[in-house]
Amino acid sequence: MMRRPHRHVGRTSSEGVRGRLPGGLARAAVTPITRGPSSRGPDVGLPTVTAVDPAAGPSGSGSAPAGDGRGVPPSLTGRTPVVPPARLLAELVPPRHFAGESFDTYVPDAAHPSQRATVERLRAAAREITAGGGPGRGLFRRAARRAPVAVYLDGGFGVGKTHLLASLAHAVGADDAAFGTFVEYTNLVGALGFLPTVEALAGKRLVCIDEFELDDPGDTVLMSRLLRELADRGVALAATSNTLPGSLGEGRFAADDFLREIQALAARFEVLRVDGEDYRHRAVVTDADGLADDAVRRAVAGVPGATLDAFGDLLDHLARVHPSRYGALLDGVELVGLTGVVPVPTQDVALRLVVLVDRLYDRDVPVLLGGAGEHDLFSADMLRGGYRKKYYRALSRLGALAADGAARVAADPA
Ligand SMILES: Nc1ncnc2c1ncn2[C@@H]1O[C@H](COP(=O)(O)OP(=O)(O)OP(=O)(O)O)[C@@H](O)[C@H]1O
Ligand SMILES: [Mg+2]
Hints:
alpha/beta, Rossmann fold, 3-stranded parallel sheet, binds magnesium ion
């Protein structure tokens, strides 16, 4: 599995942030996902996405986007994926980056005993979850396990929370565990409706929610309700939420926030503290210079699965594609080239870009940033505002993916 540098942003303040998502990014999750022409996705074995590149003709899920046959690379802007709800469900698995991770590949730091303790607890939780009644045997299961496992992994940036959560999901098994980010679950509710989502997830033994978002009260209430319904049906729950690096008492405060936001459920959750450093100990890079636009064009030319877009056009396109489909937008994409990168103009545009960066990061897709690169990508106001956690995380992730991209250019300067 490809390994990428894992970088995190530097010290920032972390007083509590609360706010509503402007422009209805998460709210847009209620937009029904339209069905459209579909092709068979090799990865999930379901009718999935049709990504149409007008310049290139139809291109199915999982296949590399095709260029125009005259050497012009395909663009993300030319793709309009349609994602059936079944695919949203089928994609509730740990991201590609963690596909090969397990409790065995997690190396606890002896300097932080809570790491070993957490792995041991999670191994036991996996045994507990897999023992006894199978999914879908509601009454029996409820009787057998009055209080299903509910754990919250609490810790700073890069201490391995997602690694551990993915390991738990793997230990429980792909059929019995759902794994998604908070945003993916809110998208699912938007696509399926609340009760069908409960029904679909209640068939699992374990539901993992990575990066529980504590900055949107509406979505928090929705998720809280969803978790309660699932816990009542005997489904085990495991969650993490994001905290700012270097913030005072980072993890403890995150746990407090989390428990407060899910008040009705708080007593059921067992908080597992994961102390430690950012595992990768990477330098903080959030404002690397951009590449020359011509270098970006040269680097993508002829590379299978590479795309090329003008940054402004891509931002416009993101407004026309539902955020739940940004993952599908990247089907088969191995490298993303962007020319003319400039500061994003407004918060709604910025929040859409954040979602795209998360999907790129989940998929380990390197990027080539032309123009100004990450310089001033998000304005000082944005970085001070209610969504700054999201922006800093996006900068951190984009910085890591851009470093991967730049390394490719350096390795192949032709
Ligand atoms: N103890 C560990 N042993 C092996 N790999 C680790 C360990 N801790 C972290 N990693 C690896 O380091 C990287 C960062 O870990 P991960 O993404 O799980 O951290 P995180 O706590 O979820 O961070 P974030 O706050 O950014 O979500 C991953 O590639 C993960 O596999
Ligand atoms: Mg994580």
